[in-house]
Design a protein that fits this description.
This protein is an alpha+beta fold. It has helices at about 60-70, 90-105, 110-130, 140-155, 160-170, 175-185, 190-205, 210-215, 225-235, 240-245, 255-265, and strands at about 5-10, 15-20, 25-30, 35, 45, 55-60.
Length: about 260
Amino acid sequence: MPDFVLFEDLLGGTRFGANHGGGHFLDTTAKGGVYPVAPNFALSSKVATPHHVRSFAFPMAQWQSVLDEAIYGSFSFDGLDIFRAPHATPTIRSALRKLWSLSADEGAPSRLLARAAGCEILAELCRSAGSPLVPARGGLAPWAERRCLELLRARLSEDISLDELAAEARLSPFHFARMFKQSVGVPPRVYLTRLRMERACELLAQTDLPVTEIAQEVGYSSNQVLARVFIKHQRMTPSDYRRGVRDPVRPKISHRARSALEGRQ
């Protein structure tokens, strides 16, 4: 298939032989091992024991231009020695772990989350494979930063994409993601979650809207999704927060929220 794919082993201890685009190799997987598969290559794999993997795919029709912008010139996977063994730096592992965690909280990853994670992973792959990245050119221009933050607030309930934000700043998605973090201090997806939490708290405190409507207002598909994200960031459920700000004498956290928090530890 035309995609560049990363397969992550979730169990470890699996003995297998494979060809992922760099020649045949034998290996025993480690838990969390990440195996790249070359685009436009019919991979083969013989696995001796049950295993569990998950994958993250980059359709090259959508990502080739991002890769070309990330380095000096036209990017090619040909000649990269990354397809014969696990290949994952701590940065790649961290990006994948955050992606799966956020997906577990929010369901299908948003376009902003998926694209931003992809930019981070591909940039690290380029760097670790020896392809020099184009240096970051500093943060966003003041007008671009202001316009992008305004757009995020105005479209809080929508699945806004990294490409749309980059277009507002007149930058490529790859360069925009790096420059946004330099200017604001956090990646776009983190800033968007902060905005959603601030707006959810405001609506819970100042309105009588049902939690389901508040979830939709701030861009989450259901009240269950909002509750998971809210507990993670506010350490209590939306209902507990509403009761707490309106009646400070009441307990600030319910047994349900406490159980959810303990389950994450």
